[in-house]
Amino acid sequence: MSEPDSQAESQEQIVVVLPDGSELEVDAGATVEDCAYEIGPGLGRDTVAGKLDGDLVAKEAPAYDGAALEIITEGSDESLRVMRHSAAHCLAQAVERHYDDPKLAIGPPTDDGFYYDFDGLDIDESDLEAIEAEMEEIIEEDYEIEREEVSIEDAEQRLADEPYKLELLSELAAEGEQVTFYSQGEWEDLCAGPHVESTGEIGAVKLLEIAGAYWRGDEDNTMQTRIYGTAFEDESDLEDYLNRLEEAEERDHRKIGNEMDLFSIQDVTGPGLPLYHPPGKTVLRELESFVEELNEDAGYDYVETPHVFKTDLWHRSGHYENYEDDMFIFDVGDDEFGLKPMNCPGHAAIFQDHSWSYRDMPVRYAENGKVYRKEQRGELSGLSRVWAFTIDDGHLFVKPQGIEHEVETIINMITDVLETFDLEFEMALATRPEKSVGSDEIWEKAESQLRSVLEKRNLEYDVEEGDGAFYGPKIDFAFEDAIGRNWDGPTVQLDFNMPERFDLSYVGEDNEEHRPVMIHRALYGSYERFFMMLIEHYEGNFPFWLAPEQIRVLPISDSNLGYAHRVANEFEEFRVEVDNRDSTLERKIRASHDDRVPYQIIVGDNEEDDGTISVRDRFEDQEYDVEIDAFRAHLEAERDEKRPEPDFLEE
Ligand SMILES: [Zn+2]
Ligand SMILES: [Zn+2]
């Protein structure tokens, strides 16, 4: 440990705060690793990296006075990230061994792996195998990974051939006089780290795909070649991940959406702007009417607001100042307008147009409101990242003491929705952050009401201290789909800010004006994301009530076509089609299966003579001589029940 002279004289001590809240006193200049050894030699040896005030840093990084220190040890999620970052370096080293002078851009770890971006690298996926083999070689060679602090001038010389690194360096130069390099064997990189100690500590690696990526995500910049890969501690973890990836690909909503004709996103109509085809809109309408029922039961009134507002509204709501870069803004004559990125200001404006008494409270507005957010083009993907999407939005205006009751109802509605789709969920309460608006009194009152709802319903929840929005605390839901992937779910968000900005009020029992609290809530969130998740969750095999085509009647031969239509009429309350193609029964069954129709009704001479039907479900179980009335009654129950009753034929 080298200490600058000024500190050496005074032998200054600093204090860091450990995760359990206890304080540790160490010499000024002590590194993260020194602190770990101070706590215990075992911990010191296991230290991979650290976190200082939440930022991941190398174990060689010096701690500073007052920092919240967390030690990252082997086997944690964070240490996996560190290892993947080292794998990204191996990738770049392998590429530079194989190809002439590609320029290095950036190479960070991601949630599932890592990537590295290169300029001037002309390869395709068939080249990945050789690069991967070279990476394995580098891992085998077990180079020590060395960290070095370098002055800006030295760094400039070492990066003279790397224009992108020089660009990054010029930004770092504004922050300090030293940067760090990490080297392994003949290769080095400008990098803040942290990394594992040697390339031999990198586990099982796999390169996955090549994509184009704009330098710094900006489409005005050069398009570079991005190589994606992943790394795990061992082969079996990697194997599990690759299996999950394969399963996810089979369920990809873009693939299934195309097969089932649910939606399209076309060049001619614009990026991130989904078009729903009739089968897709059928599913959406069912989803819409499901929440409409829940909203009506809970006393919501539907409102409707336009897609565009004058920007005066966005100034008042604060969106213009905080959200301008994500908004589509344009002039009409002398006025400036913006497509709405959120529905709340419109609802606040409706509330403001009345005078309210405490007797009217709470006021609950609902709208399936289309919103527009200008995401980076390169980030747009299927229905998961779009420019235009619809929120099943709801805004409530409540008395401060009425929060608990309303939030309880909302939580009931959300759990109703998630349970309907068999989604396991977790909840978290996010509390007041350091910077916030609103009095201590209102925050305390609001947070204690949120806690009380969660406790009363005996719900397990995490508390995320300080993670609330600046304008109010919230409850977040996260859920898990059929293949174990986690998704951000609905939110119940309290808001003390917008009522101020819109000067909203009601007259209380004391005849004084009072400020209501606003609650933002959505049950699905965005229809687009929820729809996408459902497509993948069910692999397109929607429960009966959601299926775009619920029943297909298959005549065994053309002579049964008349009876097939009479049977279809008996089921006209459902979405039923007759397959009248001139084709074999086997082919008709296959087609119906491919179209993911939950039930096939098969009719031939026997059925026609008896006035019955044969029923086949999507699990390929078949039952003969079924009474039409009995099957209709079953379907009605299955539709109204909504929960996916697996199987009529297994009952
Ligand atoms: Zn790096
Ligand atoms: Zn809102």
Would you mind describing this structure in some detail?
By secondary structure, this protein is an alpha+beta fold. 35% of the residues lie in helices and 27% in strands. The protein has 21 helices and 32 strands. The strands form nine sheets. It has an eight-stranded mixed β-sheet, sandwiched between helices. Strands 29-28-30-31-32 form a five-stranded mixed β-sheet, with helices on both faces. Strand 31 and strand 32 form a beta hairpin. Helix 4 crosses helix 5 and helix 14 packs across helix 15. The chain starts with a helix and ends in a 10-residue tail after the last helix. The structure holds zinc ion (ZN) (2 copies).
Provide a compact summary of the structure:
The protein has 21 helices and 32 strands. It is of the alpha+beta class and 651 residues long. The strands form 9 sheets. An 8-stranded mixed beta sheet has the order 15-19-20-27-24-23-21-22, with helices on both faces. A 5-stranded mixed beta sheet has the order 29-28-30-31-32, sandwiched between helices.
List the SSEs and their pairings:
Blueprint: H1 5-10, E1 13-17, E2 23-27, H2 32-39, H3 41-46, E3 47-52, E4 55-58, E5 69-73, H4 77-98, E6 103-104, E7 114-119, H5 128-141, E8 145-151, H6 152-158, H7 163-173, E9 178-184, E10 187-190, E11 204-214, E12 223-232, H8 235-250, H9 253-259, E13 263-264, E14 275-276, H10 278-297, E15 301-302, E16 308-310, H11 311-317, H12 319-323, E17 329-332, E18 335-339, H13 344-352, E19 363-372, E20 388-398, H14 403-420, E21 424-430, H15 440-456, E22 461-464, E23 474-480, E24 486-495, H16 498-501, E25 506-507, E26 513-514, E27 517-526, H17 527-538, E28 551-555, H18 561-570, E29 576-578, H19 585-594, E30 599-603, H20 605-610, E31 613-617, E32 622-626, H21 628-641
Parallel strand pairs: 15-19, 21-22, 28-29, 28-30
Antiparallel strand pairs: 1-2, 3-4, 3-5, 6-7, 7-12, 8-9, 9-10, 11-12, 13-14, 16-18, 17-18, 19-20, 20-27, 21-23, 23-24, 24-27, 25-26, 30-31, 31-32
Helix pairs in contact: 4-5, 9-17, 14-15
The structure holds zinc ion (ZN) (2 copies).
One zinc ion binds next to loops.
